[in-house]
């Protein structure tokens, strides 16, 4: 359809106008705003390999809340959050031709036979909601939705044949006059070109022709923009007109001539007095409000492709360009501009200077110049300067060049050799000799002074010194400080009054000065060096280098080089390539938004071109900084980093995507590996991040360029992820919890506590039982012991009693024996007395009375064996031989009293004679008694009766 329209747009009058404009086309770049207008804003490229989509990008939109960028790409809907690109495909994987976002954040897209919107789903990923079901026309299925407009009356989406309005959940088809191109929303008016008819305005649901626009029906209107207070710019493929509401007039002849050659495809108002025009053949043209060219970006100077399909200005004022091959970002918001040697014709830039009306570049290929009043002219090589250029400096209106071949004075486009001493690294005016210059070279220190014509000329070499000098400074005392290359340390020299020789020197060549590049500079009458120990200053009283924090607080560590500009202004180049600025009376600023990866290593250089501009030398060109814009460059607001997504677990994997503030998340114990992705929706400065995971890591991490961080095997618990960037110190916080396993959650812990309590109770009871059993055992043992002790005591008592009884028995036995023996002796005595009495009676005859003898004899018989003696004997016998007689009577009841006496005497093992005396009978009678007793006891003759009685 677009090609068909292009074939119909020309007619004879237009051809005549265009022909006249082509004559003026050569002036398209004649308007300039500054002598450095050939420098352009930074151009950032995103290739299809970077964003993961297809080449063509048909439309661009920015989310009003999140500031994420969205692109209608041939592969699908592209999303860019500042760190991560993601492609969302339509259900039928059609090419997305258009994209627009309303205030509610709904992302509307159009494709072949498809129209709908995207919103975050449950997990945060964009989910597509098709509105195709609300459209009744079957022909819609074959139409491409090329344009979407968000209006106060609803969302308009259109192909070249149909236009629909989506409002309050309904889709209304609008009746268009004929085949059309895009509808444009300008000054709250909806304007639409109808092919072959002209320009129409949509009012409610009616299309009204703008009078006088009929001639535009034969052209392709690709942009309508506001201009002035009330007018419109109407941009066709080959011309730009200004419409005041009544008439159409050519806007800018040079601009129209450019469009005639390159075919306008898109237009955009990018400022109060600035426009961007995208072409099909020659990139992007940026003009002022009058149509005068400010910048031109095409494939030759960095644009990936010359065909512009879409353009969009983001919330920071930068211009996104969707190309037929890739996406480019033009950093219009930054005052920093760049000159880039895209073809590599100039070489690596080491120094530069502005002298007169020319700008000079010193590279590894020679000295190049460019007249600043001829912006279109390229840099040209000055003959005779081929080779390595180290230094360009203007002294008293003369441009001097330190070169690999020597030192030149450059006048205009010619170079004159002043000295053949090779390697002019650095040239300084002596503070104590204003008419002299001192130079450090590959081998010597050289002195220059003016000749009779007032021009600088070589004077002499300084004797007593020979070393390569890359940097030198003069202190307040007139001493010369030199930094010897490579890494040979710093030396302080005292020159003679005529500057011809070195009178004294001192080396400061610590190991730290030799292991890494040391940079020497003079700031506020202080000699400073940057080293691995940080910034050090020379301390006069101690004659050594000490930390410079007391004089220059806030510089911090990791400084590569210091660049004093003027007064107290100071640029600080850090090891990571970032650049800070310190102004008088202020602390160290934030980073200046310049590319930090294109410095010339070990030869970084910042040059003051004039009172308004500072230039930074780069490998393939230079960056231009307007000095008046420095406060704005370092003080711009950047949003805090966004915690974009979190992916947790190995099995299963769970991903949550966030759009603004993340909500607290909870993951199972199997998802203890957590990957957190983050970004900063600021697209012109790279963000470095520092993070800290509360309850896991101990401190903030160093700033790095990573945009995601993985934490592995986190134990169950609650964690708080803190994040900040180098662009904004405000923290972003994300809280998440790793749940314990089912066997270690709150309920299981309660169960375990109950089990533990039960077990403790059981063990306690068991313990009590064991204690009781043990106590019983101890008690039993004690009782047993007591019983044994008692028994032992009883036995001892019994033994004692037995011993006592035995002793008593023995004593009683002895007493019994004694009493028995006494009886026996008594009886024996009485028998003897009776016998003696009888003999006396016989001898006396009848001389004494017989009664006396009879009485005495009777008395003797009575006392020989009395019943009283027996009772006494029986009592003593029973004490010694308990119950013997009683048991004997019980077992042998036939025994008489005499038998018992005989048994008792036999028990006492008395002899027959002794028994006879006790019984007062004859031994023969005793034997007879023994015989009778044996019979009664039924004892045979072989058993000894005495032994029987003793054992009984």
Automatic annotation (TrEMBL):
Which InterPro entries does the protein's record reference?
A: Ig-like_fold, Reg_prop, Sig_transdc_resp-reg_C-effctor, WD40/YVTN_repeat-like_dom_sf, WH-like_DNA-bd_sf
Q: Which GO terms describe its molecular function?
A: DNA binding
Q: What is this protein called?
A: HTH luxR-type domain-containing protein
Among Pfam families, the record links this protein to: Reg_prop
Q: Which intervals of the chain form a coiled coil?
A: 771-843
One Gene Ontology biological process: regulation of DNA-templated transcription
Q: Name the lineage.
A: Bacteria, Pseudomonadati, Bacteroidota, Cytophagia, Cytophagales
Bilayer-crossing regions: 742-764
Q: Which UniProt keywords apply?
A: Coiled coil, Membrane, Transmembrane, Transmembrane helix
Q: Which organism is it from?
A: Spirosoma pollinicola
């Amino acid at each position: 359809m677009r090609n068909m329209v292009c074939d119909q747009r020309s007619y004879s009058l237009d051809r005549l106008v265009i022909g006249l404009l082509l004559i003026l086309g050569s002036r398209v770049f004649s308007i300039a705003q500054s002598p450095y207008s050939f420098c352009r804003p930074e151009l950032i490229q995103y290739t299809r390999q970077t964003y993961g989509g297809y080449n063509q990008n048909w439309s661009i939109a920015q989310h009003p809340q999140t500031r994420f960028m969205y692109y209608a790409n041939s592969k699908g809907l592209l999303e860019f959050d500042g760190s991560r690109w993601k492609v969302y495909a339509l259900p039928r994987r059609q090419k997305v031709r258009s994209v627009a976002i309303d205030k509610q954040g709904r992302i509307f897209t159009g494709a072949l036979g498809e129209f709908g919107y995207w919103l975050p789903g449950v997990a945060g990923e964009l989910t597509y909601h098709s509105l195709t079901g609300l459209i009744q026309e079957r022909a819609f299925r074959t139409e491409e939705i090329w344009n979407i407009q968000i209006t106060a009356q609803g969302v308009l989406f259109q192909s070249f044949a149909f236009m629909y309005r989506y409002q309050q959940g309904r889709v209304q088809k609008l009746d268009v006059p004929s085949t059309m191109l895009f509808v444009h929303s300008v000054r709250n008016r909806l304007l639409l070109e109808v092919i072959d008819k002209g320009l129409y305005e949509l009012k409610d649901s009616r299309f009204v022709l703008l009078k006088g626009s009929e001639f535009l029906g034969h052209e392709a209107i690709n942009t309508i923009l506001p201009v002035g207070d009330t007018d419109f710019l109407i941009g066709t493929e080959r011309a730009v007109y200004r419409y005041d509401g009544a008439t159409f007039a050519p806007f800018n002849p040079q601009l129209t001539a450019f469009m005639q050659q390159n075919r306008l495809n898109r237009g955009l108002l990018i400022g109060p007095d600035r426009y961007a025009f995208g072409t099909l053949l020659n990139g992007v043209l940026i003009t002022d409000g009058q149509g005068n060219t400010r910048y031109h970006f095409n494939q030759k100077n960095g644009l990936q492709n010359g065909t512009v399909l879409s353009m969009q200005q983001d919330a920071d004022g930068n211009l996104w360009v969707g190309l037929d091959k890739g996406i480019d970002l033009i950093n219009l918001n930054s005052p920093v501009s760049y000159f880039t040697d895209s073809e590599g014709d100039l070489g690596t830039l080491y120094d530069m200077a502005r002298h007169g009306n020319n700008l000079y570049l010193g590279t590894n290929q020679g000295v190049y110049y460019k007249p600043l009043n001829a912006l279109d002219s390229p840099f040209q090589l000055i003959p005779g300067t081929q080779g390595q250029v180290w230094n360009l400096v203007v002294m008293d209106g003369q441009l001097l060049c330190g070169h690999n071949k020597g030192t030149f004075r450059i006048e205009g486009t010619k170079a004159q050799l002043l000295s053949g001493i090779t390697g002019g690294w650095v040239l300084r005016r002596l503070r104590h000799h204003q008419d002299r210059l001192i130079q450090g070279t590959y081998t010597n220190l050289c002195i220059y002074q003016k000749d009779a014509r007032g021009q600088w000329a070589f004077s002499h070499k300084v004797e007593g010194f020979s070393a390569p000098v890359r940097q030198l400074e003069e202190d307040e005392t007139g001493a010369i400080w030199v930094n010897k290359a490579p890494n040979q340390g710093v030396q302080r020299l005292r020159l003679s009054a005529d500057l011809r020789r070195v009178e004294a020197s001192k080396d400061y060549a610590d190991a730290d000065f030799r292991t890494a590049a040391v940079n020497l500079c003079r700031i506020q009458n202080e000699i400073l060096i940057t080293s691995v120990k940080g910034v050090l200053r020379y301390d006069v009283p101690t004659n050594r280098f000490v930390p410079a924090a007391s004089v220059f607080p806030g510089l911090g560590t990791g400084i590569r080089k210091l660049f004093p500009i003027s007064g107290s202004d100071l640029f600080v180049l850090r090891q990571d390539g970032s650049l800070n600025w310190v102004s008088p009376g202020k602390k160290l600023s934030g980073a200046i938004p310049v590319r930090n990866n294109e410095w010339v290593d070990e030869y970084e250089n910042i040059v003051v071109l004039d009172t308004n501009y500072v230039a930074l030398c780069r490998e393939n060109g230079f960056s231009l900084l307007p000095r008046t814009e420095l406060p704005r460059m370092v003080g711009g607001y950047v949003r805090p980093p966004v915690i974009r997504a979190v992916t947790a677990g190995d099995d299963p994997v769970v991903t949550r995507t966030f759009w603004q503030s993340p909500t607290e998340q909870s993951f199972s114990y199997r998802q203890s590996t957590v990957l957190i992705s983050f970004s900063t929706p600021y697209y012109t400065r790279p963000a470095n991040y520092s993070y800290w995971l509360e309850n896991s890591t101990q401190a903030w991490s160093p700033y790095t360029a990573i945009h995601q961080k993985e934490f592995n095997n986190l134990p169950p618990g609650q964690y708080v992820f803190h994040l900040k960037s180098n662009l904004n110190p405000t923290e972003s916080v994300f809280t998440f919890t790793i749940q314990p396993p089912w066997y270690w959650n709150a309920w299981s812990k309660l169960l375990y506590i109950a089990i533990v309590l039960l077990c403790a109770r059981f063990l306690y009871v068991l313990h009590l039982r064991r204690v009781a059993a043990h106590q019983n055992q101890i008690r039993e043992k004690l009782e047993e012991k007591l019983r044994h002790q008692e028994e032992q005591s009883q036995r001892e008592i019994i033994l004692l009693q037995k011993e006592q009884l035995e002793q008593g028995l023995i004593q009683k036995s002895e007493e019994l024996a004694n009493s028995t023996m006494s009886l026996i002796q008594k009886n024996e005595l009485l028998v003897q007395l009776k016998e003696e009495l009888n003999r006396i009676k016989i001898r006396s005859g009848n001389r004494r009375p017989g009664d006396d003898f009879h009485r005495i004899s009777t008395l003797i018989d009575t006392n020989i064996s009395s019943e009283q003696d027996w009772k006494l004997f029986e009592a003593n016998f029973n004490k010694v031989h308990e119950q013997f007689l009683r048991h004997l009577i019980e077992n042998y009841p036939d025994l008489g009293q005499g038998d018992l006496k005989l048994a008792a005497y036999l028990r006492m093992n008395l002899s027959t004679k002794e028994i006879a005396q006790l019984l007062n009978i004859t031994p023969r009678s005793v034997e007879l008694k023994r015989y009778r007793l044996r019979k009664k006891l039924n004892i045979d003759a072989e058993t000894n009766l005495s032994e029987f009685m003793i054992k009984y």
